[in-house]
Amino acid sequence: MITSKDNEQIKFIQKLQTKKHRDLTQSFMIYGEHVIQEAIKQGFELDIYTTNPDHPGTQITESLMKLVSLTETPMMDLAIVKKKEASPYTNRILMLDDVQDPGNLGTLIRSAVGFGFTTIIASNNSADFYNDKTIRATQGNLFYANLIRTDLKSEIESLKKDGYTIFATALHQKAIDIKSIQVPEKAVLVLGNEGAGVSKEILDLSDYCVFIKTKDIESLNVAMAGSIIMYEWQV
């Protein structure tokens, strides 16, 4: 059993609370038995730590679990998970242009997995896929997604060469109602920043701009809007 906060493994877990160390070590942290089981099911490499002697993993004290937990009420189990290499792209892709809120990002990952947009490409300025709030919002669906972070401009140019049609959400007059779109086999849905929307640079690269018809409100939360469109466009 680990009992000291000066233990190297405990220090490593604490460092994973920062994006810098998650990127550096290609590792991230998850909490709770359900999420750990989802990671195991999808073949992720992980090290488990627990306060419950009946659970698998390295035992640590409850005080140490409280020290390394980011939630108000600590779970009995946590795990350090190794990130996986990117997989081949699916025909439906979700692209995120500077989505800032980890909760929105996590909700979008959850919806994307549910509606078949399991390749998710985020700009370099989007929230971190492996932020604790993002992971919790995915409800374990993070492990079913192909997560890529890259420069969107060059990625869109590459996707177009590979036969993808790019649809970006926008509110201007040239935008088309999502229900009027005949979605091609290979399609990319681009969602934008919570305040600014999709950047002009990305809009200019897109093949079509689309919107969701609403009554009495100008726009929807990005996670809600993305979920609605992915539901409508699922194969």
From TrEMBL:
Pfam families: MRM3-like_sub_bind (PF22435), SpoU_methylase (PF00588). SUPFAM superfamilies: alpha/beta knot, L30e-like. InterPro entries: Alpha/beta_knot_MTases, MRM3-like_sub_bind, Ribosomal_eL30-like_sf, rRNA_Methyltransferase, SpoU_MeTrfase, tRNA_m1G_MTases_N. Keywords: Methyltransferase, Transferase. Residues 93-231 form the tRNA/rRNA methyltransferase SpoU type domain. It comes from the Bacteria. One of its GO terms (molecular function) is methyltransferase activity. GO terms for biological process: methylation. Gene3D superfamilies: 3.30.1330.30, 3.40.1280.10. Residues 7-55 form the MRM3-like substrate binding domain. Belongs to the class IV-like SAM-binding methyltransferase superfamily. RNA methyltransferase TrmH family. This is RNA methyltransferase. It comes from Paracholeplasma vituli.
